[in-house]
C-alpha cells in the first residue's frame, strides 16, 4: 500500500497535462494496483465538453440484437430499479419515466418490455439523442420520447425520475434539479453517485476520473447534507440512502482534504404531496 506522501505524488502527477498519456504499466503500478480511480483537482467547475461520447448507431444495434437473444442488459447502475418500479406500478400502469443521461438502448428495451404502457423519456447529449431518435424511427419505438434540453423537459411531468450515475457529470446540476424537481410527481432515484460529508461550507468538489485514461473525464463529488437539503426544500422525503456495491475504490488520494465519509451511494426520494 502506498504511503501518504506517495498518494500526494499521484495527485500531483495525474493533474499534470501530459499524465493522460503515461504508459499503461505506470497506470497499472500506481493506480490499478492500489484501486485508485479518482483524484481531487483545484478546478471550481467541470470543463466544457467534459464527457465526449463515441456513441454510434451500430453500437446501439449490437445492444438490441444482444437483448433480443438474452433479455439481459449490458449495464445497470442500480440493479433493484425494476423491483422498485414493480412495487409502485403494475405491468399495465401508464406512467411517465424520465431517464436523465440514459445512453444504452437495451436499458429502455428491458423496462418497456415489462411495463408495456410506460411513457419513456430520455435526455442526453445531442449525439446520443440523435442516435436514439433514429432508433425510435427505425424500430418504431412508439413510447420512447427523446428530449434535447431543459426547455423541452418542462413540457411534461414525470411520475418517476432516474439519474443513473449521471448527476455528478452535469456542470450546472443545481439548475437541472431546480427544473426537474417541481416536475417530478412522485419518485426520484439517484444511483451510483459520490458524496461526502464536510464541516466546512463546501457543496461540491471537482474530481478527475482516472479509470478511462487516456480519455479524460471530470465529475463532482457532492456534499450529502447540502444535496439532501435541496430535495427537502422541494418536499421530497428520503426513502432510502444506501451504499452502492457495484464499484469499489480507494479514497486515500483525498486524505489531504478536510472531508469525511466519502462514499458511493444510491438515494431514493418520495415527494410529499399531502
CATH architecture: 3-Layer(aba) Sandwich
- What is the share of helical residues? 25-40%
Cα end-to-end separation: 53 Å
Strand share of the residues? 25-35%
Class from helix and strand fractions = alpha/beta
- Rg, Å, rounded: 20 Å
Specify the CATH homologous superfamily. Answer: Vaccinia Virus protein VP39
General description of the model:
The protein has helices at residues 4-14, 24-30, 57-70, 81-88, 105-114, 126-139, 150-153, 173-183, 224-233; strands at 38-40, 96-100, 119-123, 144-147, 158-164, 184-197, 204-209, 217-223, 236-243, 260-271. It has 274 residues and is α/β, with parallel strands linked by helices. Helix content is 32%, strand content 26%. The chain is globular. Strands 1, 2, 3, 4, 5, 6, 7, 8, 9 and 10 form a ten-stranded mixed sheet that branches.
Keywords:
274 residues; 32% helix; alpha/beta; globular
Topology diagram in text:
Layout lengths: L3 H11 L9 H7 L7 E3 L16 H14 L10 H8 L7 E5 L4 H10 L4 E5 L2 H14 L4 E4 L2 H4 L4 E7 L8 H11 E14 L6 E6 L7 E7 H10 L2 E8 L16 E12 L3
Parallel strand pairs: 2-3, 2-5, 3-4, 5-6, 6-8
Antiparallel strand pairs: 1-7, 6-10, 7-8, 9-10
Helix pairs in contact: 3-5
Short description:
The chain has 274 residues and is α/β, with parallel strands linked by helices. It has helices at 4-14, 24-30, 57-70, 81-88, 105-114, 126-139, 150-153, 173-183, 224-233; strands at residues 38-40, 96-100, 119-123, 144-147, 158-164, 184-197, 204-209, 217-223, 236-243, 260-271. The protein is built from nine helices and ten strands.
